[in-house]
């Protein structure tokens, strides 16, 4: 059972909003960390309490072993959110691997009546859309090449060999988790889903993004942005505007 203290390892708050009436929970991409969402937290702290999930094996959790299973990551993150619970309505935003994790955590919380009111799935094909991928089986140089290709890793990390070698085990764990993930047949959530995707994403076609629709019993929407897998770094203000509208409409 996750205690409030251990939940703090998993759930990070950069701009606390004690008077907020809603909470946004952000899930990072493979190899990403909670601080990726610092700008989102800063931009939305006036309309929501923004928190981000910190996976083991990175930043101040770098001494912990990474988790190589989406199911286990979802179990642990769901436990942490339960311990963090103060009954604020939850909205989830996840990018890439984080989109799948948001979906799986939503499924778990839904079982005990704590379903998020909305799930934003960014830069990821639907849970039922499978591609054979093997980044987690490559050597270190192969993993690094993939990170460079997707342009989502801080150039300061990619340019510092010592730091890079330190974080590679966690990155490999993330790739193992997402590349071996298989959704349960017919997996659905009751929460509405909005998919956000770049029109030139090598990891998600528009058809694969639309395939999220059968995974919700609620409403479905899709927003397409110019760009690749990390379209959201170039269109941060537009993505933040979508989220702000959700909280203020």
Core attributes:
7 strands; globular; 7-stranded mixed β-sheet; 249 residues; Rossmann fold; alpha/beta; single chain
Note down, in words, how this protein is organized:
- Keywords: Hydrolase.
- Belongs to the thioesterase family.
- GO terms for molecular function: hydrolase activity.
- By secondary structure, the chain is α/β, with parallel strands linked by helices.
- It has a single domain (4-248), classed as 3-Layer(aba) Sandwich (Rossmann fold).
- The protein contains ten helices and seven strands.
- The chain has a seven-stranded mixed beta sheet with strand order 1-3-2-4-5-6-7, sandwiched between helices.
- α2 (38-44) links the parallel β2 (23-27) and β3 (49-53).
- The chain starts with a helix and ends with a helix.
Order of helices and strands: HEEHEHEHEHHHEHEHH
- Beta-strand residue percentage: 5-15%
CATH superfamily: Alpha/Beta hydrolase fold, catalytic domain
Number of helices: 10
Class by SSE composition: alpha/beta
Overall average pLDDT: 89
Domain count, please report it.
1
CATH topology: Rossmann fold
Helical residues, percent: 25-40%
Number of strands: 7
How would a textbook summarize the main sheet? 7 strands, mixed
CATH architecture: 3-Layer(aba) Sandwich
Q: Give the CA-based shape.
A: globular
Protein name: Oleoyl-ACP hydrolase
GO molecular function, one term: hydrolase activity
Organism: Streptomyces alboflavus
Keywords: Hydrolase
